[in-house]
Structure formats: structure tokens, C-alpha cells
Design goal:
The protein has a single domain, classed as Aldolase class I (TIM Barrel, Alpha-Beta Barrel). 41% of the residues lie in helices and 17% in strands. It has helices at residues 23-35, 56-66, 78-81, 84-93, 110-120, 131-139, 158-174, 190-200, 223-235; strands at 3-6, 40-43, 46-47, 50-51, 71-75, 100-104, 123-128, 148-152, 181-184, 203-206. InterPro entries: Aldolase_TIM, BKACE.
Length: 241
């Protein structure tokens, strides 16, 4: 059970005044998030504010220097480059490799991206947003060769979101796939899903990629404040969870 910090994602600059969009800001927020209790980092490298897989090397080098020993991952979302061949080309050119990369099973080229990441020695965080995504993962010949399962739900209706997450977990369990699970929601479901992850003894993540509000509904000062709140939930006695 860990708390991962997802510090920026695809959010626009107007989302939060302290959204880290350049390397200096990413390093600052990463250090603060780790100090607040984050065990890992998930970042979306950017060039001139725009998400870019070409920016992975420079970003990873800076984060490795600032946060030695910290597990660091990136996204491979198809929207970043907007072209399947370009996505694969950029990944093949990485020199300063992340420890892991998230791959969305809802994306058509996911199997090819996963195969390339394995060739490069990068761990795979298999992103599942639906039962169909889980079934697709299970259909792949190397479905058990993933670092972990990332159950990530965008649905904002809490009961529907919980049903989807439970359906994914049940589908994987019924198939006998036993990999670590990281569960997270977005915006309205962030904190209910942090609590659910704690109950199931799964990992979770928080940060400005997923939402900007604290459990009490106020806007967090920064990523570190969100991490602190999640760590407090994970460390609370069972009766206080």
C-alpha cells in the first residue's frame, strides 16, 4: 500500500495556480510530495507547457538528480503525441528511462506500446477504466507481465464509479490475475476512492492530475497538501478511517 503523487497530468495551466508545468516546478513539487509521504511519482513531462514524450529524458534526468531512489513513472497517453507511430518512436528514443509507464488499455495501440516498453525494460502500469479494458488485458498473451494494475475511474457518479471499479477487480480476480492494484478516482471521486483503496489494502494516488480539492472540499495549496491528506487516511486507525 503506497500513496503515489500524480503532480500534473493533462490539466491546463488555469486549473490551479501551482500546477507544475516546467521541469523546475516539477522538481519542486516532487520533493515536497515525497516529504509529505508520497512513495512514488507519476509525471507528465512537458515542453513549453505542452505534454511531450520527447521531454521524458530531460525531465527524468532532473528528477533522478533531485529525488534519488524514488520510483518515477510517466504516461504514454495516445493524446500526447496524437499519432501511434510517433508515440512508439518517441518511446524507442528514450535514454533516461522511467521506472514505469502507464498504458491505457482503452487505446487501440496499447498492446504495441506495452511490447515496446517491455523491450526497453520499463515497467508497465496497466490502466483499466472499464471491465472491457480488464477483459482486453486478460486476452493479451503477456497479461501477467505488468508491474501493477491501475484501476482509474473517470465516472463522476460515485455509485456508478464504485460499481465499475468493483467489476474490474472481480474480473481480474476471477481470471486468477494477481498483480498489485492502485486505485484512484478523479475530481468528485478522489477521496472516496482513497478510502476504498485503504479498505481493500490497495495503493492509491492523489495530486493535481486527479483533483485539486482536499477531503473537506477546500482547494489544496499544492500537491503536497493533497499527498498529506491521503497519507493521513492511509495511516489512520481502522476506527477513524
Amino acid at each position: 500500500m503506497i500513496v503515489q503523487a500524480c503532480i500534473n497530468g493533462a490539466r491546463p495551466s488555469a486549473f490551479h495556480p501551482r500546477l507544475p508545468l516546467d521541469i523546475e516546478a516539477m522538481v519542486r513539487d516532487s520533493l515536497l510530495a515525497i516529504a509529505a509521504g508520497a512513495a512514488e511519482l507519476h509525471v507528465h513531462p512537458r515542453t513549453d507547457g505542452r505534454e511531450s514524450l520527447a521531454a521524458v529524458d530531460e525531465t527524468m534526468l532532473a528528477l533522478r538528480r533531485a529525488c534519488p531512489g524514488t520510483f518515477i513513472g510517466v504516461s504514454t497517453g495516445a493524446w500526447i503525441e496524437g499519432d501511434e507511430a510517433e508515440t512508439r518512436r518517441r518511446i524507442s528514443e528514450w535514454r533516461d528511462l522511467p521506472d514505469y509507464a502507464s498504458v491505457n488499455l482503452s487505446e487501440p495501440d496499447a498492446p504495441a506500446v506495452m511490447a515496446l516498453l517491455r523491450e526497453r525494460g520499463v515497467g508497465i502500469e496497466a490502466g483499466l477504466a472499464s471491465v472491457a479494458d480488464a477483459e482486453r488485458l486478460l486476452s493479451l498473451p503477456d497479461h501477467d507481465r505488468v508491474l501493477r494494475i491501475l484501476i482509474e475511474i473517470d465516472e463522476q457518479n460515485l455509485s456508478s464509479a464504485m460499481a465499475i471499479a468493483d467489476g474490474i477487480a472481480t474480473t481480474l480476480a476471477d481470471a486468477g490475475l494477481r498483480r498489485p492494484i492502485l486505485l484512484h478516482g478523479s475530481d468528485a471521486t478522489v477521496w472516496p476512492f482513497v478510502a476504498r483503496a485503504r479498505e481493500r489494502r490497495w495503493s492509491t494516488r492523489v495530486g493535481l492530475e486527479d483533483g485539486k480539492h482536499l477531503p473537506d472540499g477546500t482547494v489544496a495549496e499544492d500537491n503536497a497538501a493533497l499527498v498529506s491528506a491521503a497519507v493521513a487516511i492511509f495511516r489512520a486507525p481502522p476506527s477513524a478511517a
